[in-house]
Specification:
The protein is mostly beta strands. It has four domains: about 120 residues, Immunoglobulin-like, CATH 2.60.40.2310; about 130 residues, Immunoglobulins (Immunoglobulin-like, Sandwich); about 120 residues, Immunoglobulin-like; about 110 residues, Immunoglobulin-like. Helix content is about 0%, strand content about 50%. The protein has three helices and 43 strands. The strands form ten sheets. Strands 7, 9, 10, 12, 14 and 16 form a six-stranded mixed β-sheet that branches. Strands 1, 35, 36, 37 and 40 form a five-stranded antiparallel β-sheet that branches. Strands 19, 20, 21, 23 and 24 form a five-stranded antiparallel β-sheet that branches. The chain is globular. The chain starts with a strand and ends in a 10-residue tail after the last strand. This is Signal peptide protein.
Length: about 600
């Protein structure tokens, strides 16, 4: 491995320009389409047409922008007012094919008089599941308005928007009709009075629009539309160091549909495929529903001709080898569509996995993988451990808690220390802190000895998990970091930094490196550490591996390494020219140290 030490950081923080996200609900209160406005030089700013009303003036949120006339910094205060409100934004009904269903929405002015236009529109869906309007496609037939589609909404007035939808004869279990309600709005030209007392001011005028939906569940069991769905691809990918199932499905029909999608992962080389599968089928969800916490999270609603990304975390241990990832599409009662995708998985691709799930051997796991008990704030006196046996054989498990000197930890009580675990079963162990100790804290390991009951005299595996008991207070954190370096590793190029725990207790380590260019593109976010505990006296090298698509050029690097309670271990910002020779790992690498800039960092180049 060749490494190259980087020159010391030119600054420790990047001052960001103001980025204001103007968001308007295009489908529901939780699904929005945003348009971003960046304000760099604030001498004068013309009004712009968007959605809602914004006034921006001093004083308020500060930016890095400079007034070109006298070099003064300009502050911005933001205030958003929508021109009108509509309730609800989505109405859901149940009906049969051919049935006519009335709908009604309430439009309320927020204090201005305006012209309102209403029209049926076609809906489109982004890959994340967010539903937007499609002005370039003809709307779904069957929408009729019984109230005017163009009217004046006076200040403080409330108007009912009414109409009907006729359910078509399509054989689908779900339909969605879109309605666009838009304020025509007028843009005021800026005047000399807009800058009072020599102050620099900015104003943005928005046009409010709502995309409303009328959703209908038809109750059909003849689901020919679901059978037309296409399962395009499915993979197990690394997401923040953890295995994540990511799949792509497409609805090629001209009608919306509802379904549920589940996945199962099975190891090809297992003697018993049913036991090697993930313990339960994993329900996938659209990213737009990731924050829901009920069963609605896993309901997949697909608009006509939509292509969606579905995903879910894979919370199970893995071993290197070949797998089958099986995807199943159902209507909630039975599987309508199924497809299998072969996978080759390497555990090293999921570097955060062992911080949550300890692998005791093929198919045998213990959670959590890092164990802390205590009597101080932020700790628990009892922790539940779960041992799972998804292997093909019955296992004998022996648990032994020891301190860092190898002596038994007498203050830790386990509900079971030696037990047999049948293949395909799991067992829960309670770890309890008992009595009073003279020690302030203790650190050590929970040693786990595993034997296969087919050969009980032979130790199949011995694993040690980090264990800490906090009796009176946590030991003070003392973590040191070395220089940030460029390294050509056997598995690719990376930025590396060594951290060392100089304290008297475990130190969790979390590292983040942002690698960005000055072209306005989103920076690459590279992670390592993942909260894995570092033992006293132990050193570890954090490796931030570069994506394969990184090209040569000038980059700004922002490194943050933190520990427990958000303690800052290291923060650096450097500017670096990545050359072709560095990316190829040639002998010229050592000559590129001068490519690290000592000039002032451009505050706009990483955002």
């Amino acid at each position: 491995m060749k490494t190259l030490a980087l020159i010391q950081p030119t600054m420790r923080f990047i001052q960001q320009p103001l980025e204001y996200n103007a968001e308007r609900d295009n489908a529901s209160p939780t699904r929005v389409r945003s348009r971003r406005v960046r304000i760099w030089m604030l001498a004068c700013l013309a009004s712009m047409m968007m959605s809602s009303v914004v006034q921006a003036q001093t004083p308020g949120v500060r930016t890095g922008a400079i007034d070109a006339r006298d070099g003064r910094r300009v502050s911005i205060e933001q205030r958003v007012e929508q021109a009108f409100r509509i309730e609800p934004v989505v109405q859901r009904f149940k009906g049969r094919r051919g049935e006519v269903i009335p709908f009604s929405f309430t439009v309320t002015s927020t204090g201005k008089t305006m012209q309102i236009d209403v029209s049926p529109i076609q809906l489109r869906q982004e890959e994340s599941g967010i539903i937007l309007h499609d002005e370039h496609s003809p709307p779904m037939e069957g929408v009729k308005f019984t109230t005017p589609t163009r009217f004046t909404l006076n200040a403080g007035e409330t108007v009912e928007l009414k109409g009907t939808v006729t359910i078509p004869l399509a054989k689908t279990n779900y339909l969605s009709f879109g309605l666009l309600v838009r304020d025509e709005g007028m843009v005021d030209e800026p005047t000399e009075d807009d800058a009072i007392g020599g102050q620099t001011r900015a104003a943005i005028r928005y046009v409010t629009q709502y995309v409303l939906r009328v959703d209908v569940e038809t109750g059909l069991t003849n689901l020919s539309s679901i059978e037309q769905m296409e399962i395009e691809d499915a993979q197990v990918v690394s997401h923040e160091g953890m295995p994540y199932i990511r799949a792509y499905v497409k609805n090629p029909s001209n009608f919306a549909l509802e379904c549920r999608v589940r996945a199962e992962l099975s190891h090809k080389e297992s003697a018993n495929a049913s036991k090697s599968r993930s313990s339960d089928p994993i329900a996938l969800f659209m990213p737009s529903r990731a924050n829901l916490d009920d069963d609605e999270k896993y309901l997949v609603r697909m608009m006509p001709n939509a292509r969606l990304r579905l995903e879910a975390p894979l919370e199970t241990s893995l071993i290197d080898g070949r797998y089958d990832l099986n995807l199943m599409v159902s209507n909630g009662r039975r599987t309508m569509l199924e497809r299998t995708f072969p996978q080759t998985l390497l555990v090293n691709s999921f570097r955060a996995l062992d911080t949550r799930i300890a692998n005791l051997g093929p198919g045998v796991t213990l959670e959590p993988a890092q164990i802390e008990l205590g009597r101080v704030e932020g700790t628990q006196r009892m922790v539940t451990l779960e041992v799972k046996n998804n292997s093909d054989d019955d296992q004998l498990i022996h648990l032994v808690p020891r301190d860092h000197l190898g002596d038994p930890m007498s203050r830790l009580m386990l509900s079971s220390t030696k037990f047999e675990l049948t293949a395909g079963r799991s067992k829960t162990i309670r770890a309890l802190l008992r009595g009073v100790s003279k020690e302030t804290s203790q650190w050590g390991t929970l040693d786990i000895i595993r034997r296969n009951l087919k050969t009980p005299n032979d130790v199949e595996s011995a694993t040690s998990l980090p264990l800490e008991l906090v009796h009176k207070q946590r030991p003070q954190l003392t973590v040191a970091a070395g220089p940030l370096q460029w390294a050509n590793l056997t598995d690719g190029n990376a930025f590396v930094i060594e951290v060392a725990n100089e304290g008297d207790g475990y130190a969790p380590i979390q590292g983040e490196l942002l690698l960005g260019r000055d072209d306005g593109s989103r920076p690459h976010r590279l992670l390592d550490g993942f909260g894995r505990w570092l033992a006293p006296g132990q050193k570890r090298e954090l490796q931030f591996h570069l994506p394969a698509e990184i090209d040569a050029g000038r980059y700004q690097i922002r490194l943050t390494v933190r520990s427990r309670d958000n303690l800052s271990v290291e923060e650096q910002v450097v500017v670096l020219d990545l050359t072709e020779e560095m990316l190829r790992g040639s002998q010229q690498t050592s000559n590129d140290a001068a490519a690290v800039s000592n000039a002032d960092v451009d505050s706009n180049s990483l955002r």
